[in-house]
Design a protein that fits this description.
With about 325 residues, the protein is α+β, with helices and mostly antiparallel strands. It is built from 14 helices and 8 strands. About 50% of the residues lie in helices and about 10% in strands. The mean pLDDT is about 85. Bound molecules: zinc ion (ZN). Zinc ion binds next to helix 7 and helix 11.
Length: about 325
C-alpha cells in the first residue's frame, strides 16, 4: 500500500471515530445541523403561509378547514401522519431533533417555541392547489396538495384508498428521516461552488443562492427508492396494506398494463406529468410489490368503515 493510501485510510478511520464520538451520523451533519434543517423548514413554511411566488403558484394557498366536514378531513390526514411518526425508529428520530427550542408549542401559545420531541417535530399541512403532488422539506414539514387527496370525475389520479394516502405519507416522512434534502443541498452547494458559503455564512446564504424553490425540485432515483423502503417499513409496522404505493404510481405510468397488472421496466420514462417531485417508475411499482410478497403482507387497504375517500368527498375540496 502506498503512503498516500495509508494516509487516506487512517484519516477515514479517524473521521468515523470522530463522528461516533460526537454522536454524528454523517459528514453532511457537520455542514447542516438538525437545527439548521428545522430553521430551513420553518423559513420555507413561512413562505408557504405568505403565498410567496417562489414556492406557490398563482391561486395556491394553505388549506384551512371552513366547515365540520373539512375539519374532519384535516384531522384525519394529520392523525394518519402522526400514526406514521409513532413507528419511526428511536435512532432515526434522534438524528432529526435539534437540541435548541425550535418546535411549535401545540397546546396554547402557538408562537412560543419549545424543545422538539417526537410529538411536535412533524407538521402535516395541506395546500389548496390543482397540482397532483406532495412533498416534504427538512425539519419535518410535510405538504399534500388537495388535488392528490381527491378522486372524482375530472381527476382520475387522486387517492382511492387509505393505503394510498398512508403509503405516500410514509414515503414523504421517509425523505425527512433519511435527510434527503440535506444531502441534496450539500451536493447542490458543491456543484454551485458555494460550499465555502456553507462553511462561512451558513445555510441561509446558500439557500439564497440556490433559490427558495430548491425544495420543489425532483428527488434522485436512489433517494426515491430509499424513501419507498422507509414508507413500506412504516405501513407494514402499522398494519395497513402497502399496495397503495403501487396502485397510486401505476396510474401515473403509461407502461403499466391494468389488465395484467404488469409494469414494463424497459418502457420507463413514459410517465405522466404527475407527482413531479417523486417521479413514478415501473421499477418502483415492481419493487414495492416484491417487498409485499417477501413480507407475506395481507393487510387491508381501508381499515375503518368510514372510508378515507368518503371523508374527502364530504369535505368537497
Ligand atoms: Zn419522493
Amino acid at each position: 500500500m502506498s503512503n498516500k493510501w495509508k494516509f487516506f485510510w487512517v484519516v477515514s478511520f479517524a473521521l468515523v471515530l470522530f463522528f461516533q464520538a460526537c454522536g454524528m451520523h454523517s459528514w453532511e451533519e457537520l455542514l447542516v445541523s438538525a437545527a439548521d434543517e428545522k430553521k430551513m423548514g420553518r423559513e420555507f413554511d413561512s413562505l408557504v403561509r405568505d403565498k410567496n411566488k417562489d414556492v406557490m403558484s398563482s391561486g395556491e394557498e394553505l388549506f384551512s378547514p371552513q366547515n365540520d366536514a373539512q375539519q374532519e378531513l384535516y384531522d384525519y390526514y394529520r392523525a394518519r401522519g402522526k400514526e406514521i411518526v409513532k413507528v419511526i425508529d428511536k435512532k432515526d428520530m434522534e438524528t432529526l431533533l435539534p437540541k435548541e427550542k425550535l418546535c411549535r408549542n401545540n397546546t396554547d401559545n402557538r408562537n412560543e417555541k419549545v424543545a422538539c420531541t417526537k410529538d411536535n417535530f412533524f407538521e402535516f399541512k395541506i395546500i389548496k392547489s390543482k397540482q397532483l403532488n406532495a412533498f416534504a422539506v427538512p425539519g419535518g414539514y410535510v405538504y399534500f396538495y388537495t388535488e392528490i387527496l381527491k378522486e372524482n370525475n375530472t381527476n382520475k389520479n387522486g387517492f382511492r384508498s387509505e393505503s394510498e394516502l398512508m403509503s405516500v405519507l410514509g414515503h414523504e416522512v421517509g425523505h425527512v428521516v433519511l435527510h434527503h434534502s440535506r444531502e441534496s443541498i450539500v451536493k447542490q452547494a458543491a456543484l454551485a461552488g458555494v460550499i465555502d458559503a456553507l462553511l462561512g455564512d451558513g445555510i441561509g446564504s446558500v439557500l439564497a443562492q440556490l433559490g427558495a424553490n430548491f425544495w420543489l425540485l425532483g428527488n434522485s432515483r436512489e433517494n426515491e427508492s430509499e424513501a419507498d423502503v422507509k414508507g413500506f417499513e412504516y405501513t407494514n409496522k402499522i398494519g395497513i396494506s402497502s399496495e397503495g404505493l403501487s396502485d397510486f404510481f401505476s396510474r401515473g405510468l403509461k407502461s403499466y398494463n391494468p389488465a395484467t397488472g404488469q409494469c414494463d421496466e424497459k418502457k420507463e420514462g413514459s410517465v405522466m406529468d404527475a407527482f413531479s417531485t417523486h417521479p413514478p417508475s415501473c421499477s418502483r411499482v415492481n419493487d414495492n410489490k416484491r417487498r409485499m410478497e417477501k413480507a407475506h403482507q395481507n393487510f387491508p387497504k381501508d381499515r375503518s368503515e368510514r372510508k378515507f375517500t368518503d371523508i374527502v368527498k364530504a369535505a368537497g375540496i
